Amino acid sequence: MVNSVVVVGRVGQNPEMKYFDSGKVRTSFSVAVNRWNPRTKEETTDWFNIEVWDKQAEIVGEWVKKGTLVGVEGRLAVSKWQTPDGEMAERYLIRGTNVRLMGSKKDEN
């Protein structure tokens, strides 16, 4: 079986970095991917939540900003947690293993 995801799009907000007592670091951000629907003749934006860890997280935290064009390779994952009122919650995200800066400086101005 294969669990592999590739998205190319623009970062929706500045990435958020979190450092843990264990020394690990996680960076989270979202990516907008536009797609054309020929039936409705409209463009739709799909948003993907991305999470990267350790060295990749540090690189993203330093170099990626809102609006940056990125290519993300990774796998689809489910994050589960318990809410303050005791309910279980979950969300799908992409655990990125490789983030590439796709645009030039000119594209980001």
From TrEMBL:
Q: Which Pfam families match?
A: SSB
The molecule here is called Single-stranded DNA-binding protein
Organism ancestry: Bacteria, Candidatus Galligastranaerophilus
Quaternary context? Homotetramer.
- UniProt KW keywords: DNA-binding
GO CC annotation: what is one? nucleoid
- CDD domains per UniProt: SSB_OBF
PROSITE patterns associated with the record:
SSB
What biological processes does GO assign it?
Answer: DNA replication
One GO MF term on file is: single-stranded DNA binding
- Domain of life from the UniProt record: Bacteria
**SUPFAM superfamilies listed in its UniProt record:** Nucleic acid-binding proteins
